[in-house]
Specification:
By secondary structure, the protein is an alpha/beta fold. The protein is built from 35 helices and 39 strands. The strands form 11 sheets. Strands 17, 18, 19, 20, 21, 22 and 23 form a 7-stranded mixed β-sheet that branches. β6 and β7 form a beta hairpin. It is globular.
């Protein structure tokens, strides 16, 4: 229903017809307050704008609020003739801390006014404005540069002392910005880097800002409920004021000629009135500078380092720019204009996470904005910067990516994440900062000594602590590096490291990103075990790979190396892409290859065995070259198990997984069909995700499998086991020194159903005592042909071999050492954060089928774990972002084509759910075709009722392919058949409407879709098959996103 308003005399549009501003459903009394997370309000507003569109109206207790997030609307709001700044909410409450300061000034026009007689009036704020403006001119800022270098030098010195330790990035950048502002503007030293405790000023400031923000959410007449909080707030404000007063009084008692901001405020006179600033106004602005300057800047720097460490190209570009512009010289003012990439990176960090996330204006008169939305005089309109900075009309489809890519820090250090699996989490006071973001720093081997330039100050700098260097290990050095997303390559790497001790080596282990800019060790062999992820490096190898791609020809001279790669041959175009690249580039950069590259087939049954065979070749070459002895020593890691049958406990930790709660679980398939479940999981308030992402889950072995192992090992389920070690156990993945039940240890730490390797068979054969027939049977299995036929193809596990040979006594500790550590499993999320921002759903097929050996059943480790969950179950999970292309276009009007089979429909349910929520909120959504394959409608058609409802709303059109009953799906048996059947509609959406294509399913389905696309293109354009293939290869990277699972 439209309404007609007279156009504003100030409006730039001539439109007179207006439409209502979209608004989420409001609750009585509370309005829309429940739609906004009080801990992360800007994130909530960003989500609401994504759902309802670029302008949204919200009822917030005492007032209505309009929020906007598009460049088109914000451009209008920046017209100062029509709109003026409004200070309200949390910023208004901050005035209790900062007083009458320039930052919380409502509008510049309020600085100067006239009385009723037309007499010129100049307020205290106007005087402060004119006195302080010259202090922020370019020359004044340049004069602060030596002080900035001084404080930055203290950070450099600290990181140099604590190289390779866990660095609290937020805390260190908070200290950096606070100390820099205090020293450069007031010549005052907080000396934050010389104390292990946070500054009391910073703690008080953080608490008071949080209360200032939360006060806006208090219900009327409830102030008495916050007496304790208000008392602490008053004490914190007093501490900040007292700190400022102390600095001021110290300068008054000890005057200087410093041309800093404090002297400007103390001595400066207003050129108009001749007046100076009052002590109260000096204090107000001093507190403001300390709060506003250091809080936002420290957040920006922390976000910058998060994004740079997550974006290898950006990291290498910044490092190269610093080396090119600054070299080994001390950073100077002349360098700064040349650091264009760093400047762009800072702006990009602010684009993605503006630390001051919103600002508010109000119309000076009734207005019409966007040509159709009426807003009244005095109505608060808040610009949500995180939404504005993601407007796809300005920024394109890749708005979530860090795309544009502290010079001194990059001149001195290499950086890497402390936890490669860390996903960005944000906390909010009045500004936003990352939560729990840590990194490691390492002094660059080519770094020049940089003297810390200390400015003379009124406070004495405290001496720095010295660290005792770690002892140098003795023995033959060896360095094992891995690139691993799922944990398989890491497990192999740790297995290799353990084996190295038997050959007299003293090894180290780490991921490839620990060498983000080269500098591989030359004192011993470097062994690399890595996989590819859709042709890209794994998360913990991406920085090293990016460096190696362009490394110079002599950068690896003196490095001897060996590479083992894991890959799945169904990904034919990217099979072994990264292991091959590493092997070839290391050689091209003058490295010495010790052994031919190993190839591990992840689709085959003998991946661990292939790694063992490659390892043997490596050790043989090492032995022949004289680097190690000819006979391996007994392992220095000798475990023994102490069993206590009277005690129970459980110990399980993993640093990048967090607790999540199962809210509900239900079976989707009909009786008699293989079970597929829908599971709803609460991730907790700090978690964020996007439709199309994965949830990584730490599972446990099936109960029946664990029971079999306990029975075969001769244990009780509640026996308490404590593993002890006589050798170096620092890299072991077993819970050494922790007491826990036998059941928990076997359930949660090792892969019990992993196919047995030749090494496992040999281990079992060596345990045979006197039974010659038993020994002969196992020796027979160790011949390659028999092993592949009777063990490999049948996926016989070590446990099943032990059951087949019950007379062999197998001790617990050696058995555990033979097995791989349990790995996380990834599942596509089948929901949208617009539905519930902290809740995900999974669509899981439960694997429970007759074992290939014909003995018993094979039960999927992860799927059976999920099948056992019930409401209230706690599990350990983390969000894993999917490939950058496998997300919805930011503009919901872009058409999408989706292809999936079975549980491959999971991400597309999330896509369609998001589009449905956006459409229900009034947004225009583009056409969406879902091609979905399953056995039959009455067996395993998933989410049929939901999809029918969304289809009725015009959100999606579902095209089925029933493999058992193709007659019910236009005679189309598979998804690719249905694609060809509906090819004209698909071609129209793809060619004329710019549709994006998404594929989720098996490799064979993905290949089938590719073949049909090539066929359609060939027929439509009269191309040859080769021409059509070339066209498809070109367009694939731009418009296709594929998530293929084995």
């Amino acid at each position: 229903m439209s309404q007609t308003n007279p156009p504003s005399s100030n409006a730039t549009t001539i439109a007179t017809t207006t439409i209502p501003i979209p608004q989420p459903p409001a609750l009585p009394l509370l309005g829309n307050t429940q739609d906004v997370d009080p801990e992360l309000p800007n994130s909530s507003l960003q989500r609401i704008i994504a759902q309802y569109g670029p302008i949204v109206k919200m009822a917030m207790l005492r007032r209505n609020l309009i929020v906007v997030g598009s460049q088109e609307l914000v451009h209008e709001l920046c017209d100062e003739k029509r709109f003026e700044k409004q200070v309200g909410g949390g910023l208004q409450n901050v005035r209790a801390i900062t007083g009458d300061d320039l930052c919380s000034l409502k509008a510049f026009s309020r600085l100067i006014s006239t009385n009723q007689h037309g007499t010129y009036i100049s307020s205290t704020l106007a005087i402060a404005h004119r006195v302080l403006m010259p202090a922020f001119g370019p020359l004044s800022i340049q004069g602060m540069f030596p002080g900035m270098v001084d404080i930055a030098g203290q950070l450099v010195a600290k990181w140099e002392r604590f190289a390779d330790h866990k660095i609290n990035v937020v805390a260190d950048f908070t200290n950096l910005t606070l100390d820099t502002i205090a020293f450069c503007t007031f010549s005052y030293r907080f000396n934050s880097f010389y104390s292990t405790e946070p500054q009391p000023f910073v703690q008080a400031m953080g608490r008071s800002l949080k209360v200032a923000g939360s006060r806006t959410r208090r219900l009327p007449m409830t102030g008495f409920l916050y007496h304790k909080e208000d008392q602490i707030f008053a004490e914190d404000v007093k501490l900040q004021h007292d700190t400022a007063d102390e600095i001021i009084q110290k300068r008054i008692d000890n005057p200087t000629d410093d041309k800093d901001l404090l002297n400007t405020m103390l001595k400066g006179k207003d050129p108009v009135t001749g007046q100076g600033l009052s002590p109260e106004n000096i204090r107000s602005n001093m507190v403001t500078f300390l709060i506003a300057g250091h809080e936002t800047t420290s957040g920006m720097l922390t976000f910058l380092f998060y994004y740079v460490l997550s974006t290898p190209r950006a990291y290498q570009a910044i490092r190269t720019e610093v080396d090119t512009v600054c070299g080994r010289e001390p950073i100077s003012l002349s360098h700064l204009p040349k650091l264009k990439y760093i400047d762009a990176a800072l702006k990009e960090a602010l684009r993605l996470n503006p630390t001051a996330g919103a600002w508010t204006v109000t119309p000076k008169a009734d207005e019409i904005i966007g040509g159709k939305y009426a807003v009244s005089k005095g109505q608060p309109i808040t610009v949500v910067l995180a939404a504005l900075h993601r407007d796809p009309k300005v920024w394109g489809d890749d708005v979530e990516e860090f795309r544009k890519w502290y010079a001194r820090l990059f001149q001195k250090f290499d950086f890497r994440p402390y936890d490669p699996g860390y996903q960005l989490k944000v906390k909010s006071t009045l500004t936003i900062k990352p939560v729990d973001f840590y990194m490691r720093v390492a002094v660059r081997k080519d770094a020049a000594p940089i003297a810390v330039q200390v400015q003379t100050a009124h406070e004495e700098v405290k001496p720095t602590a010295q660290l005792t260097p770690a002892p140098t290990p003795q023995g033959c050095p060896l360095h094992v590096l891995y690139g691993s997303n799922s944990g398989t390559c890491e497990a192999f790497a740790r297995q290799f490291l353990a084996e190295s001790t038997r050959h007299g080596c003293k090894g180290t282990i780490g991921h490839l990103n620990e060498y983000p800019s080269g500098g591989l060790p030359k004192d011993g062999p470097v062994v690399i075990v890595t996989a590819s992820y859709e042709g890209q490096p794994t998360d913990d190898a991406c920085h090293f790979v990016e460096w190696l791609k362009t490394a110079d020809a002599a950068s690896c001279k003196g490095v001897s190396y060996a590479v083992f790669g894991c890959g799945h041959p169904d990904w034919a175009t990217t099979f072994m892409a990264i292991p091959t690249l590493l092997d070839e580039r290391l050689s091209a950069c003058s490295g010495t290859r010790l052994v031919d590259r190993g190839l591990g087939n992840a689709a085959g049954p003998n991946l661990p065995g292939e790694f063992e065979e490659w390892s043997k070749k490596f050790w043989t070459i090492m032995s022949d070259s004289g680097r190690i002895g000819s006979q391996p020593e007994e392992s220095s890691l000798q475990l023994s198990a102490r069993v206590d049958s009277s005690y129970r406990t459980t110990v399980l930790r993993n640093k990048h997984l967090s607790a999540a709660k199962v809210l509900s679980t239900k079976v989707l398939t009909k009786d008699g069909a293989p079970i597929k479940r829908h599971i709803e999981i609460d991730l907790g308030e700090e978690a964020t995700y996007r439709a199309g992402d994965y949830l990584a889950i730490l599972p446990a072995n099936p109960m029946d499998t664990v029971t079999r192992a306990i029975r075969r090992l001769g244990l009780h389920a509640d026996d308490v086991v404590e593993l002890t070690s006589s050798g170096d156990s620092s890299e072991s993945t077993l819970p050494i020194g922790k007491q826990m039940s036998a059941f928990d240890m076997l359930a949660g730490f090792v892969e019990l159903d992993q196919p047995a390797t030749l090494k496992n068979v040999r281990f079992l054969a060596n345990l045979v005592k006197d039974d010659e027939s038993e020994k002969a049977a196992l020796d027979r299995l160790m011949t390659t042909e028999v092993y592949e036929e009777e063990v490999g193809k049948s996926r016989i596990s070590l446990l099943r071999l032990m059951e087949d040979h019950p007379s062999i006594k197998v001790p617990l500790a050696p058995f555990l050492q033979e097995l791989l550590p349990i790995r996380v499993r990834q599942y596509s999320i089948s929901s949208s954060p617009l539905w519930k921002p902290n809740v995900v759903t999974l669509t899981v097929g439960i694997l429970d089928a007759p074992h290939l050996s014909g003995k018993g059943r094979y039960v999927g480790l992860a799927s059976s774990f999920l099948d056992r969950l019930s409401q209230g179950s706690l599990i350990r999970v983390t969000i894993k972002p999917s490939h950058v292309a496998f997300h919805l276009p930011p503009d919901p009007s872009v058409p999408i084509l989706m292809f999936g089979a079975g549980t491959g429909v999971a991400p597309f349910r999330g896509f369609v759910q998001e589009r449905a929520i956006q459409k229900a909120a009034g947004r225009a959504v583009g056409p969406a075709l879902l091609f979905y394959g399953c056995r039959a409608k009455e067996e395993d058609l998933l989410y049929d009722e939901e999809m029918e409802a969304w289809a009725a709303e015009g959100v999606v059109s579902v095209r089925h392919a029933f493999s058992k009953k193709p007659e019910e799906s236009s005679d189309c048996k598979y998804v690719q058949d249905r694609l060809y059947h509906d090819r004209e509609e698909v071609r129209t959406l793809f060619d004329q409407a710019g549709a994006r294509v998404y594929i989720c399913g098996s490799p064979s389905m993905a290949r089938g879709i590719e073949e049909v696309c090539i066929k359609i293109a060939s027929e439509a354009a009269g191309k040859s098959e080769e021409e059509a293939k070339a066209w498809f290869k070109r367009i694939q990277a731009e418009r296709f996103a594929t998530d293929v699972y084995a």
